[in-house]
Design a protein that fits this description.
The protein is mostly helical. 65% of the residues lie in helices and 0% in strands. The protein has one domain.
Length: 60
């Protein structure tokens, strides 16, 4: 999106959604007895792919 001066602005909702997904993945990982912090950090890089990996991971 461009402002009045023609400079590109970032859409912050994308970053908020990605961060929210990472928090959800951390909670999901904790429910499967896995390290929430590791999965949170992994989710920041992999996003929805980490969610699918967690959905099919077996509970420890």
């Amino acid at each position: 999106m461009r402002n009045r001066k023609g400079v590109e602005e970032l859409d912050h909702s994308y970053f908020v959604g990605w961060g929210t997904l990472a928090l959800i993945n951390a909670g999901l990982a904790q429910g499967k007895n896995r390290t929430a912090l590791n999965w949170f950090l992994l989710s920041l890089f992999l996003g929805p792919f980490a969610t699918f990996m967690l959905l099919f991971a077996k509970k420890r």
